[in-house]
């Protein structure tokens, strides 16, 4: 039955992903828990970290925030112990999002900030996500000026985010914050710029 535990582990993890795609969240959770059990039994760190991260997403979606928090905390522990820097960045963002969704804005901001300031990020998108999340968390705490400061480097240059969709998200968020800061003319100019980014990217779901 367990002659190929690694194969079984990844098969269960992949089944979980498929179930998530089709909205069968409870079924996905049981597949991830099966994968995690094997990972623990054979002492395979990555085979624990990924199912744990996926479980946190499932529990979060189902509104089971405590279970999501426990899964993500354990995932971070495994990542740090095993030196999975790539996964640690993603897990920190996932934990920050959980906190943001639960209204724990200060904790969310601290976690997002950790990724923004981190020397190692797997790719630029991870830093972009962290900056975007940090701005949202700060805005939720009515620190609009600080949120604008965080987004500033991302809306000025064109080099950092060659992806027009990502650029548009930053522009839209920036415009909304300017509006909240009663800087209506600037907000309008930014919104127009965001619309241009969307047009350049041919996206219809953002505008």
SS element count, helices: 10
Strand content: under 5%
Determine the mean pLDDT: 87
| Most strands sheet | none
Helix content: over 70%
What's the total number of strands? Answer: 0
SS class: mainly alpha
What can you see in these coordinates?
The chain is mostly helical. Helix content is 79%, strand content 0%. The chain is built from 10 helices and no strands. The protein has helices at 5-21, 25-42, 46-61, 65-82, 85-101, 105-117, 124-140, 144-155, 164-180, 184-201. Helix 1 (5-21) runs antiparallel to helix 2, helix 5 (85-101) runs antiparallel to helix 6 (105-117) and helix 9 (164-180) packs antiparallel against helix 10 (184-201). The model has no long low-confidence stretch (mean pLDDT 87).
Task: Summarize this entry quickly.
79% of the residues lie in helices and 0% in strands.
């Amino acid at each position: 039955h367990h002659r190929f535990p690694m194969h079984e582990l990844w098969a269960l993890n992949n089944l979980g992903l498929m179930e998530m795609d089709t909205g069968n969240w409870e079924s996905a959770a049981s597949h991830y828990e099966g994968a995690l059990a094997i990972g623990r039994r054979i002492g395979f760190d990555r085979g624990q970290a990924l199912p744990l991260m996926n479980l946190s997403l499932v529990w979060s979606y189902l509104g089971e925030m405590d279970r999501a928090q426990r899964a993500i905390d354990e995932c971070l522990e495994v990542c740090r112990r095993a030196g999975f820097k790539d996964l640690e960045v993603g897990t920190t963002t996932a934990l920050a999002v959980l906190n943001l969704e639960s209204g724990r804005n200060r904790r969310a901001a601290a976690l997002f900030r950790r990724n923004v300031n981190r020397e190692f990020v797997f790719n630029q998108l991870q830093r972009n996500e962290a900056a975007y999340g940090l701005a949202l968390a700060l805005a939720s705490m009515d620190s609009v000026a600080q949120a604008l400061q965080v987004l500033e480097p991302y809306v000025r240059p064109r080099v950092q985010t060659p992806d027009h969709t990502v650029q548009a998200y930053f522009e839209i968020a920036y415009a909304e914050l300017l509006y909240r800061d009663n800087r209506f003319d600037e907000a309008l100019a930014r919104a127009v710029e965001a619309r241009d980014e969307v047009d350049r990217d041919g996206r219809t779901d953002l505008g």
